[in-house]
Amino acid sequence: MGGPTDRRILVTGALGQIGMELLEALSEKFGAENIVATDIREPDNFENAEINFLKLDVLDFDKFENLITEYNINEVYHLAAILSASGEKNPELCWKINMDGLMNVLELSRKYKFRIFAPSSIAVFGSDVGNLARQNSPLNPSTIYGITKVAGELMAEYYHSAHGVDIRGLRYPGLVSWKVMPGGGTTDYAVEIFHKAVSSKKYACFVERDTRLPMMYIDDAIRATLQLMDAPSESLTIRGGYNLPSLNFTAEELYFKIKEKIPAFECTFEPDHRQEYADSWPDETDGALSQNDWGFELEFDLDSMCTIMIESLS
Ligand SMILES: NC(=O)c1ccc[n+]([C@@H]2O[C@H](COP(=O)([O-])OP(=O)(O)OC[C@H]3O[C@@H](n4cnc5c(N)ncnc54)[C@H](O)[C@@H]3O)[C@@H](O)[C@H]2O)c1
Question: 75 and 209: one domain?
Fold first, then answer.
């Protein structure tokens, strides 16, 4: 793959929390005319009219293949998935979309030789990991979503070693962003809290006040994604999912930090079924390998993340 202008990019699940932000960054970097955005649903607020949007269910192999060949695609960002809380409501659908969708991308890449980005998640870890999740910590997830992510990482490693597929992955922590509401994950509270703080000044948080999870501001996550996709293939020692460095704060610490900036904001803590998934995940992640292999470092801390979230939503 050569310079930026050689990129012809297709994004699946492009209308989601990460997709809408990634599209903006990709079009800025490589030109909107080189990007095809796809999703199973129609966009209702697709602002970047220069990006070609097409409907695509990632389970529809033939249509997927037609798009790859018609647009001469050489890079796919595969974001279509069912996330943790939604996955527990419909485990069969979660398995089908997360696994069969990934298999379709892998098989197409084997045939057409394009580079793939396929995200993993901190949900690969289970409660045996303890507080700090390292790259090589055990992978014993308790959610079906986490199980699909572990299987996805293994398939990525397999297709890379057995078939030379150039696939790259990150274990995203909970991502905090303001443009699109998150799509049914356990860390959604860390986004909802900002929307409510700015609008009604009241929020009932669905995890306990002392729940601590790895998190990251979306700009750092997008930068990590682009940096990993630009890294020379030979520098990568992991294909399934790199641990990233992350912020870690309790739900209450997040509340207090927002309250410093919006004093009238009141938050209560009323845990629901998602508490169980949060409890099974680590508090923080060790991202040393992503720093060693391709030089990633965080730019946003809790304070700067809260400032930009509140300013953007106000
Ligand atoms: N957002 C996070 O905090 C987070 C954390 C860890 C990992 N991830 C991973 O990042 C990826 C993207 O996550 P997100 O937060 O943008 O999710 P999201 O739920 O916001 O978006 C997913 C998109 O996929 C689409 N989709 C669902 N089924 C589809 C199908 N069959 N065909 C095509 N599109 C389909 C949905 O319409 C949606 O727009 C996922 O793999 C997710 O597991 C996200």
Answer: no
